[in-house]
Amino acid sequence: MTRAGTRAALLLGMAVALRGTAVAGDRDVTEVAARARDLAGAEAFASAYARGAAMRRDEVLATLDADGADDADDAEGDRLSADGR
Which domain holds residue 50? Predict the structure, then answer.
């Protein structure tokens, strides 16, 4: 089980929440879901996907905003470490 797999499952579920429907027949979505399920395990994938799909639009957007801030903080930390600060 990996964090990347459960994160991908959550994001796939969040996409369903935003669209209001699952994407049937999209090869890329199918491949990402299969890889995420392999990484996370079937039970963890299903749980994370369901959690994302159950979110309200405002919850999805807040989660994505928070993740963006975390990513920016991580990138800044990486840059400072590379500069030796």
Answer: 3-83
Query: Which tens digit of pLDDT belongs to each residue from 28-62?
Result: 999 999 999 999 999 999 999 999 999 999 999 99
* Residues near 52 by beta carbon (within 8 Å), at least 6 away in sequence: 9, 10, 11, 12, 13, 14, 15, 16, 17, 60
Q: Give the chain's domain count.
A: 1
pTM of the entire structure? 0.77
In angstroms, the CA 47 to CA 63 distance is: 17
Q: Which helix (H) or strand (E) holds 47?
A: helix 42-53
